[in-house]
Amino acid sequence: MFPNPEIFGVQLYWYPLWQWIAILVTFVFALWYVFYKKMIQMSILKIGIIILSLLFLGYIGARCFSVIDYLTDTGEMTGWETMTQDLNNGRLRWYGALIFILLGLPLIAKLFKIKSFPTALDVIAINICLFTAIVKQACLFAGDGCYGVYTNLPWGMYFPYGAAPNILPVHPTPLYDTIFHLCLFGFLYYWNQSKRKMYAGQTAIFFFIATSFFNIAIEFIRINPSIALGLTLSQFSYALIVLMMLVYYWTLHQNNQNRVLANEFKTEMI
Fold first, then answer.
1. Residue 117 placed within a domain
2. Is residue 226 part of a domain?
3. Which is nearest to 120 in space by CA: 234, 33, 16, 211?
4. Which one of 30, 127, 133, 224 has the minimum C-beta count within 10 Å?
């Protein structure tokens, strides 16, 4: 949407700029949220290492799914080159990051001996939501083609710069992303401390399902090509995330039931 900025003769790029802004803001919020709100008992060093681990997993997942997206779109194996391309070019798939983070979290919890995994996942989900709201501005400012289809609505935008410039007004889908996730972040922040919250892990389940359905819906006004059944790789990936969350909910429900039965058995024995 905007040309890359230049400060004191130094050329900057929107993608890494917004990525670093998102990382720093989320890191500061995570430290404040954990220590001020006392959500989980953990040292600063351990929190920092966990955040770096999540960033690494997310980056690898986003790159891998970028390659898969390229291969499904073109059928060419040269898509593997995107794994080593400059960060300035973006080419990251956010749904890939979420899938890799979800798959890697149980291992991280085991390595760092996180006692209450559901509680930790709630905190992580809130921070991922904040990160999403900020980092989506990279797409908006760079104008790399992640915008939507043509629209004659008053808020339609032009993206004359970047890798995929357009000449007609289109849906500013990255802006929709940011607005939705900022609202969702506010709700999750309130809900996670609310007495109406029924069990640990509920906040995370709500976030991942809500963001998945939102992204499945918004894909219908994006310009990404479908791969099967009229659906895009993004939609299939978010459907997988919803499935993962349903499995996680069932696991939590079973564990809670077993805990209740165990407590009733102890009470009867006494």
1. yes
2. yes
3. 33
4. 224
Percent of the chain with pLDDT over 90: 26
Number of domains in the chain: 1
Q: Is residue 76 part of a domain?
A: yes
Tally of CB atoms within 10 A around 144: 22
| Domain carrying residue 191 | 6-265
**Rounded CA separation 219/188 (Å):** 24
Mean pLDDT of 219-243: 89
For 125-173, the pLDDT digits (tens) are 999 999 999 998 888 887 776 788 888 888 888 887 766 777 888 888 9
The amino acid at 204: A
Q: Transcribe 44-81 into DSSP letters.
A: HHHHHHHHHHHHHHHHHHHHHHHHHHHHHHH--GGGGG
Q: pTM value?
A: 0.84
Domain assignment of residue 1, yes or no: no
